[in-house]
Amino acid sequence: MPGPIHASLLGIYFKLGSLLLFCTMDAMVKAMGGTYGAFQIMLFRNVVALIPIAVLVWRAGDHRVIRSRRPWLQAIRVIAGIGSTAGFFYVFPRMPLVDAYAISYAAPFFMVAFAVPILGEQVGWRRWSAVAVGFIGVIVMLDPTGIGFHPISLVVLGATFCYSLSTIMVRQLSRYDQDAATLFWFALSSALVALVGAVPDWIWPPLIDWVLLIVIGLLGGVAQILVTRAWRLAPAAILAPFEYVSIVMALLYGYLYFREQPSWTVWLGLPLVIGSGLYILHREGIRARQRA
Question: What is the reported pTM?
């Protein structure tokens, strides 16, 4: 018993650590997005992220850990991951950080839908009902009446869709490949795509911005390793509720550094999104105990 409890606790620490690093990175992306394009920031994010990933491979002691048994699955994960990163990096400088985070909580609903055809999971009426309630919450936050509608919110929703598909593919790949392979191929492929997109609008950074862009890459790389490790150490039903801690961080960063106020529709829709997400996790816990 102490073993699993210790592993789950360690997984929670890794998850919280990754959220802190990701939120800090996102705030820095927002701050620098007014000067540099999304692809240029993505380039630094992924090239520098290869450093901690290289350390991970070196510690494994065998470069064969980056070999993939399912390259086509890796390709789908890479494409979805690039869509997610590019979308979020584009919107962060253009809308309140907390609004973007709130809309991104639609991810569990997309994941439930993807889990059926990709992972072969059975989804009952309770989880589909929770998905419907959460979807209503997302619609409220998007404010289709136009009173406070921000068209770029649809970009956030598209990025969230890509993120959800990417996450499901990571789960699928965990059956065949090691974590180092998934991390390496995503970072390398994203860096190459970002390089092509960054060249036409390249802005040469001054020294201080070089430092900040490198920090963005290190934060993203270390955070990716932490969250990947966390999902191996602890069950999803234990870790996923901590995802909502990021809304607190987004509120703090948005208010302290950008003087942002969340739109009123976010406060109306967020309880529905969080509540339905937690219910989905509750059902997952019940299903896990039944399987055990």
Answer: 0.81
